[in-house]
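[#protein-structures] MJ: dropping UDP-N-acetylglucosamine 1-carboxyvinyltransferase here for a structure pass
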Amino acid sequence: MEQLVIHGGHPLHGRVKIGGAKNAVLPIIAGTLLGTNGRSVLDDVPALEDVYTITAVLRALGVTADYTPEEHRLVIDASHIGTAVAPYDLVRKMRASFLIMGPLLAREGHAEISLPGGCAIGTRPIDLHLKGFEALGAEIGITQGAIHARAPHGLKGARIYFDFPSVGATENVMMAASCAEGQTILENPALEPEIVDLANYLNVMGARIRGAGTNRIKIDGVPELRAAAYTIIPDRIEAGTYMVAAAMTRGDVFIENAISEHLKPVIAKLKEAGAQIEEDIAGVRVFADGPMKAIDLKTMPYPGFPTDMQAQFMAMLAVAEGTSVVTETVFENRFMHVDELVRMGARIRVDGRTATVEGGTSLSGAPVRATDLRAGAAMVLAGLVASDETRVGYIHHIDRGYDDLVAKLVALGADIQRVDAEWVGA
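AK: finished. structure tokens for UDP-N-acetylglucosamine 1-carboxyvinyltransferase:
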């Protein structure tokens, strides 16, 4: 079993380039299924396990997909779709696989997909996806762990209100509505930059989508979409992770390719904690010459503080001066990293969806687990400032969302390596 071995105490210095956004590239890859002719050429596609998984899902549908990790380029030819049935063994690995249902419904008029898997960070129901499809005229059935969707009379435009601004549901329904007859209006949709990126890609394919990134998205359906070339936006969560790493190690790092407009809550909270930040058109510089200060934060849907940055900030707050309060409102089970941080000496108390972090302590290296993707990033950050040796196990979670993490950290001066060793943690 592979592990990360970290020896802390090394401030990070230098430049790190941020790759394409995981949360943008996965729906865009699913969206290539709408291209009825030609090849879609996607650039800045990060070499992540999730990318390999959803690419395998497309191949299982009979689509041609060729990925060149050295060039971060993915070429997909969806001119022919052999089947609209996605295999369980692939879908169970990753929740984002469910994003193929919208395109398949629009393109083929039917789809069968196993109930999705992914990180165990709490309930992430797909009912908003299904309600959206039903509003467009699809018939939904669930049998033997699989969801069957059919649109025997084609998809028809509709006005759809989301009870919660779900990112996945917004993306899935937006893709389905792109080829639905008439106009679709999505109210209370998700506002994330990744939603805008997907809409931009679909529009390049010939869709007619307006208002992405606002509280009302208008979609005028078109008969078909064509394959297109597109470059994925930079990953704001990867950028945020390196920003926190620079601050908590008292380093000085320029995060190249980071878009500060997408990172406003992260920047605001880092400044509040005492980090120095310089925003530039080419990226963001983060530096600190002293310990961070305690802050309170509350996760919220975009443009609020991202739940995907909560674990990393908690690692920083564990060594900050003072007592911080972290409130998680998006996922009810996203404090699994707390037990692992406590193993390293952190003083954290959890009461429901609120964690109280008593900072000012020194962390000590220990064998810890990456309980999910972002928790794994938090363990790495904690290891960067801990005394002695930290071993992070179950790093397959980290591989789902961070491209070349070890090499990038080593280039910044971190003492971290990937090793094959038997896991001996609790």
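MJ: nice. Confidence is low (pLDDT under 50) at residues 118-123.
AK: one more thing. The chain has two domains: 2-19+234-420, 22-231.
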